[in-house]
Structure formats: structure tokens, C-alpha cells
## 1
Amino acid sequence: MMNKFMFLTNYGFKKKLKSKAFIISNIILFILLVAITNIDHIIHFFGGDFNENVKIYVVDHTNESYEIFKENFLNISNSVASDGDSGSSIDDEKTEIILSDKKVDDLELEIKGKSDIIIEINQDLTNYLNATIISDGYIDSFTYQNIVQSISNTKYSIALKYSNIDPDELGKISLAPVIERFILDEDKSTEEENSNMIMSVVFPTVILPFFMLILLLIQMIGGEINEEKTTRSMEVIISNVSPKVHFFSKVVANNLFVILQAVLVFLYSIVGLIVRNVFASSGNMVDNLGGQVNGFFSTLSESGVMDKLAYVIPITLILMILSFVAYSLIAGVLASMTVNAEDYQQVQTPIIIICLIGYYLAVMAGMFNGSIFIKFLSYVPLISCLLSPALLIIGQISIIDSLISIVVMLLFVFICTKYGLRIYKIGILNYSTDKMWKKMFKAVKKN
């Protein structure tokens, strides 16, 4: 029996790997992930330039704003660069600020087709000054905010110059208030609070691929069984192997395939990052990714999330693998009771809805702080794989709760295996869909 099981498992697994759909989809997926990771390099190669020298022409009708504006602009640029390191989007070496005595109309002709910017500063009797920002196309959001802030600071400096307000007092008024955060519960901390806010946004994005893989797994198992029943090849297979061997070979082969696909997607992303690191030229192009990634991990480290990953990752992986098995068992049982793809599409809807509920609960996990109901749901099979890790990482459940979720999932897999196999044995050669649910309940009761 073991030899037949291994043969069917290897055959089903290799059949998927050799299929044109798998090969073509993975080639496209690899190209897309590498391209997305290096999108700025690709645009640069085809003529775009993320680091084109930008000239900011200042037409100063006040005769005193240019120097103040330039100083403010450079100060803000340096501040952003020091905060974001290599992730800064503003490079003062690539931005040249020029005082121009030309007319604005003439400058507009000069900047046609370029990334250059015109700033016209005028006197304003009621507001000290006003400004107009002109460009041929869109302005990078960081640069635009820098310009706006610099103009505001310039107005502030000129207003201070012509007013009788004491500079020290005005400086105190302009300072942001000092806000301290205290949490009375000794078991809670501000770092954990910050990690909750971060992970309530990050974690749903991380589990999205897992959610998609579950849907893929459900579709694959149902599609294969329906294909074998439709072509009547199922009768030939079952005449040579037992339904039990056939059932488990489908579950194992499809789970191995899904896990392999997940690993491949991860490797494609790594290759994309390596390609970016190899071909990024710091002399010609500001590579924002490194600074953004470093800044992201620094934020996670400061918030205490990184310390939790040592136990969150293993628990998440165990729940994911058990969930793959559980979903594939249910999908195989339901598919055995149907005779075509249309029938299976109908009976699989409840499984997909349950999976979708688990995903949205994980997305909204931060909203249920202290809720006993959400803690109970973290134990529920098919949902716990998505919800329990999310609640664990934001501190709403403990490691013990997650271990309970794993135990409950193991029991659920055992029950699905024991009773699902009874249904599978009856349904696999049954080509009638009449009273399908009634037949399933009868099969479960049968010894």
C-alpha cells in the first residue's frame, strides 16, 4: 500500500511541476517580482531619471526672501536625510537653487520637458508674502512638501523681522507641546502599544499570500478530483488502489505543491532584492529601498516586535501547515460528492467564506482589544491559522492560547481524517448529486 501511495503522490506532484500552467505562471511571477522590486531602475534604463538634476528658479520680488528660502530648504533637506539615511528622497547635491532675474514667462519656456521648478515670491500687505510654484509636470511629493515648508518658514522669518514680538517668546509659542504617555497597567507598555499600531497594518499584508495559497489549494484538489470523475478515470484508479490511499496522496501532493510555491515566491523576492543590490549604482541613482527597509526594521525593533518573532514565526508556520492539511481534507471530501466543476464551485463556497472571515478578523484584530469573543475565535479551526498569529503578535492572546489553537487544530484534522474518509469512500464513485448532504451524514454515521 505504501508503494502505491508514494507512486500516486509522486505522480500527482510531478504532474503539477511539469504542467505548462505552473511553468508559465512561475516565469511570469518571477519576472513580475524582480521587476517590481527594481521598478525605478527599469524606468531609469528606458529613459526615466529618478535623480535628474533639478533646478529651482526663485523669482524674488521681495528682494529679501531668496537667501532665507534657500537656507530653509537646505536645512529641511539635511534634516530629512539625517532621519532617513539612504532612504531620503531629497538630495541637495542634485537640487540647485538659483536666484533668477528673468521673467516667469521666459522661465516657463526654459523648463519645458524638464523637472525644473519655478517659485515666484511676491510681497503681500496682509500676509507678508505669497508664492506661486510652477512646473512642467508633477513634483515629487517630498520635494513639494519641502518647498511648501520652506516658504512657510521664510514667511515666519520675515514676519518676525518686521514685528515687535520678542523672538524668544515667539519661539516658545511656535514650539510643539511636550506630550508624555503613561499607561497605568504595569503589564502594558508604550512600546507594545506602538507595536500594536504597526502590526495592525503590517500583519494583514504578510498573511495575504497565505490566504491566497489556501484558495489555490482548495481549487486544485477539487479540480483534480472532478476531472478524474468526469473522465471516468477514477474508476480505473480506485480499482487499483484503495480510496484511503488515493485520498491521502491527493492531500500530500497538493500540500507539497502549495508549500513549494510559497517557497518559490519567497525566493523570487530575494532574487529581486539581490538584483537591486547588485545593479544599483549609488553614484548615479539614490537607492531608497535599503534605507526604507533598514528604517522599517529599526522601527519594529524599537517597538519590541522583533523580540516576539522568535516564537511567533514557529507558531504561525505550524498553524499554517495544519490549516493547509485541514482545508485540503475538507476540499477533497466535498469534491468527492460532486460530479463536475460547477457543483464543486457551489459546495466550496462555505469554505472560502470561512477563510475570508478569518482574514478580515485578522485585519481588524487591533479593534477587539480585550474581547473574550475574539479570543474564543482564535481557537476555532480554519480561522485560527489567520487570527491567532495576528492576536499573538499584538499581545491580545498569550503563547498558551496559541498552543491551545494548535491542539484544537490537530484534533480537527484528526476528526476530518477519520470521518472525512468515510464520506470519501462512498462519494468517490458516486455520480449522483441528489440528496448529497443526506448521503454525507449517513456516511459519517456508518461504521
## 2
Amino acid sequence: MNNLQSLQYTPKDFKSDQYVRWCPGCGDHAVLNSLQKAMSQLGLKPYETAVISGIGCSSRLTYYMNTYGFHTIHGRAAAIASGVKLANPELSVWQVTGDGDCLAIGGNHFIHLIRRNLDVNVILLNNKIYGLTKGQYSPTSEKGFVSKSSPYGTVEEPFRPGELTIGARGNFFARTIDVDLRLSTETFVEAGKHKGAAVVEVLLNCVIYNNNIYQPIIDKEFRAERTILLEHGKPMIFGKNKDKGLVLDGFNLKAVKIGENGITEKDILIHDAKCEENILHYKLATMEGDLPLALGVIRDYTTATYEEDFTNQIKEIQTKNPVRTLKDYLLSGETWEIK
């Protein structure tokens, strides 16, 4: 066996020699660390991995990976990543993008990558702001958000990445938070294992232009009460004392307390991330208000990938078509000779 093939790579092997140029305290540092750990745990090889990015603070991550990489243009990372995967299906392809790069100028490319189900892992860093261009509101900024480009508050409704992913017929969606490196690493690993388009939304803090935007949800003091970590095959239970859970109330999800009103653990929904039907996944991905924010793998359904169907179609046509070279093609129709 080739010595390169037998090596087990460590997180350090995925680190480049470039100085990391993000603001101190930026959540991007944690994502970079988690991604390098995840790639090591997946058994990936740097020379068989490609990281593609667009434009934005998040998109600098490509420089800090000791893999193949392409820092592309604004919003076009999904298109480039699609081409990379089709050109070399054996590569493990990762797209790193931000809420502006991915969901504004890159929105059309994003939904079609998801719809086509290319085996690309999309890490979507969502800080609800344009950080690199100095603080304009983004497609995920809340309605009424005051920024440099919306001094009186934006009048737009925001995109919700989970809703958009599942609406585009996505088969894998997960969510994590930048401060939880263990959860981020585990979630990236699950995305890497999934065959097909995998989207991981990272709730990310921008210390300069949108500091503490997620603090009311993820602060350690009350995170257990306001978030729920979903695990396939396990009851949807949350709370500091693990005494709350989710049940169906008609067509909607409802948070209940175990032990009250006759509710027992048997009444709590069991998470099935691998179910083909996506209605419950959609509801879990869009929980807000009185319901906890869902973290972990929300949907993980496997079906044929675009590159598999694409390759199989080419092989099928080749068996039926005698044309093998450009010369064969040029001579396959009517020909004549000029003297």
C-alpha cells in the first residue's frame, strides 16, 4: 500500500501555514478548528479534499486549510464546488460560505446545488450581518434590524436556512453553534458521512458588527432551556433537568413538561432524522418563540446523488452509441469530399 494512503492524518495536518486573519473572538476561529478535527476523524486525506469558498469573512477559511482550495467570487462557490465534484467525484468537497454570500447573490446557486443533490458539504456561517463590508443587514437579519444599510430597520422578512434547504428538497440539514466545538465537530462529521448535499448552519457571533446576537439562546445560563439537541432514535427531550419534551398538538409541535397533565416520557416524540417525509423535519428546523431552537442533525435522508446519476447516464449512452472520438463524431453524419 502507498505510504500516503496508509497514513492517519491529524487535525494539524489540515492546518496551512497562513496567519489566520479574523478578528479576535470571531466565531470563525472555532469553526476552523472544528472542521480540521472533523476531517481528521472522517479519515480524509488533505490531497483528496477540496475546500471552496466565495467572498466574505467566512470565505477566508480556504486559506487556512492544508487541502486543495479555491477562493472564488461572490456567491459562486456552489457553482464551482459543483464543477469540482463532477470533474473528480472521488474528492471530498466542502463549501464554506456566509449568510450573505450564500443566500443573497449566491441564493440561486445554493438552492440548485441542494435540489440536484451533489455530494458537497455546505458549511453556512450565519451571523445575520455583512461583516466583511462593514455591517449591512443580510438575508437572515431579523425584520426591523437596524444596520448601516437599514438605519430605520429593515422591512424585509428573513430567510431561515433550514426552511430554505428543506424547501429546495434538501436531504441533510443540521445546526450547530460556534461556541460548542464538540457539537460542531460531531455535526461536520455527520455531514461528511452523508452521501449527497449536506447543509450545516452554524450560528456564529460577529464581535464587531452584530455582537451577542445569539446570546439570549446560547448563553450557558439558559441554553439547556432554550435549545434542544436532536439525536436520531432518541426522545426529543430538553431542559436543564431533562424534564421537557416535544409532542404533536394537531399539526404543530408543542413543548410540554414531563410529569405534568399526565405526560410521560412515552408521550415524547422520537427523532427520526432518516425519514423520507420531511414535514416534521421542516417543523423542527423552523422552531422559534416558545419552542426550543433545534441543534444537531435535523434531517439525514439518503438517496441517489447527482454525480451518480450523471455518471450512470453517460455509461448507459456509451454502451448504445458507437461514437468514441471526435473523429468518429465528425464522420458519423453525412460527409462529402471536396476536390
